[in-house]
Amino acid sequence: MPRTVYAFPTVxxxxxxxxxxxxxxxxxxxxxxxxxxxxxxxxxxxATLARGLLEHQTAFQWSKWHVFYADERCVxxxxxxxxxxxxxxxxxxxxxxxAEQVYTINPDLVGQPEAAAEDYQHQLMQAFAxxxxxxxxxxxxLILLGMGPDGHTCSLFPGHxxxxxxxxxxxxxxxSPKPPPSRITLTFPVLNHxxxxxFVTTGANKQDMLVRVLDQTxxxxxxxxxxxxxxxxxxxxxxxAAAKLQDSLIDRPAAL
Length: 256
Ligand SMILES: O=C(O)[C@H](O)[C@@H](O)[C@H](O)[C@H](O)COP(=O)(O)O
What we know:
Layout: E1 3-8, H1 11-32, E2 36-40, H2 45-53, E3 65-69, E4 71-73, H3 83-90, H4 113-128, E5 142-145, E6 170-173, E7 183-186, H5 188-191, E8 196-201, H6 207-215, E9 232-238, H7 239-242
Parallel strand pairs: 1-9, 2-3, 2-5, 5-8, 8-9
Antiparallel strand pairs: 4-7, 6-7
The protein binds 6-phosphogluconic acid.
6-phosphogluconic acid is lined by residues 41-45, 71, 83, 146-148, 152-154, 178.
Domain Glucosamine/galactosamine-6-phosphate isomerase: 12-235
Protein name: 6-phosphogluconolactonase
Enzyme class: hydrolase
């Protein structure tokens, strides 16, 4: 699995490089098909992404974007804990992506996580297999992920049975160690069928886990289990996050 690790002095530098990277991913996708499918996580990601995207918007073909959530909390869409609300306020509200191309959790199902996951999987199937094509798993052009200090990504937590899901596209949990407890999440087979996955990880509290995940010797760390079979994994780090990594693990951003 090809992997590229970039470390930048500050979060602002991460934002600027991420913008160029997303633009390139968009252009590559539009050269192949007529849309750009991207999945977003919550946490600090929307803000880091928005800072770059909103600064130089002209090259983005927003009408071609189809935005999904890599994971979502089972809360109303206007709740302060909602990943959609976070992304909406950070950048979706400021760019002309058609509303029907932003795929949110069904707000009527947030009290029933399993049904919400099933509904979200159905939304994905409509988008990736609209004519009932035999699509085993969707292939996202780009999935943007965060990593928690415990090595979780999406809502896939170390030691949780969901890390073993091999069939569903979207799954639910009601015992997330990170609040709120009820969530839906893309599963590993979906992450690992993506064309590209990029982790955006900043801050000193990620230092130790980054060493463990990038070392690739330890099993069971969800962030380390993201290995797209035909895709590429990128890591966008700031210096505080990258501080304990060996220099040899870090690639030169000039390659972007
Ligand atoms: O909804 C969520 O909680 C997330 O999608 C989660 O997986 C997040 O990406 C990580 O916890 C990293 O979050 P930070 O970037 O805020 O540390």
